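Input/output pair, single chain:
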Amino acid sequence: MNVRIVRLMGWFGILSPILAALMMYLSAGSTPGWSLTGQSLSQLGSGEFGAVLFNSGLAMAGSLMLLFGAGLYEFSDGDAVGWIGAALYILSSGVVIGLSVATVEVQPIHDQAATALFVALPLSAAVSSLHAWRRGLKPIAAIGFAAAVVSVGVWLVAGSVTALYELMALAPIGVWQMALGYWMRSQVPVDNL
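Output:
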C-alpha cells in the first residue's frame, strides 16, 4: 500500500460529501417550488439556475468520489474483497458523474442509473467495511456496516422516492466515507517512522 496515495485520497473522501451537500443546499434554495418531501433530488437537476448548481455539483462530487475510490483501491493492497469494495465505489462515482448529464428528463436511463447508485453505494460500504474489519479497523468497519444497513433500510420502508428518503439513504454513506477518509488521511508514511 502506498501510504502517500492513501493519505492524499483520504482528503477527497472527506470533501466529496461536504461538497455534494453544499451544492444540493444551494440548488434547493435556487429552485422555487421544490419540495424535500414531494419531489426527488433529481428534480433539482431540471430547470434553470438551480439545475446548473445541482448538475455541476454532481459532476464535482462524483469526480472527488472517483479520487477517493482510487484511494480505496490503493488501501485494498491487493486483497480481493477490498478491490471489489473499491470497484463498487468507483462504479458509484461514475454513476454520480453520469447523473449530472443524464438528468431526470433522460428516461429510462436516469432512473436506471439512480437505482444502480442506491444499490452500489451501500454494497460498496458493506464490502469495503468487511475488508476494513479484516484489517483490524473495527470502528471504521462498524460505521460502514451501519451505514449500509440504514441506507438499504430506508428503501425497505420508504413508500415513494422523495428527496427526504434519498438524503436519509445517502447521509450515512457520507458519514462512513468521511470517517474512512479521516483515517486514511491520518496514516504515517513508513519512511517517516
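The CA atoms of residues 111 and 171 lie 20 Å apart. The radius of gyration is 17 Å.
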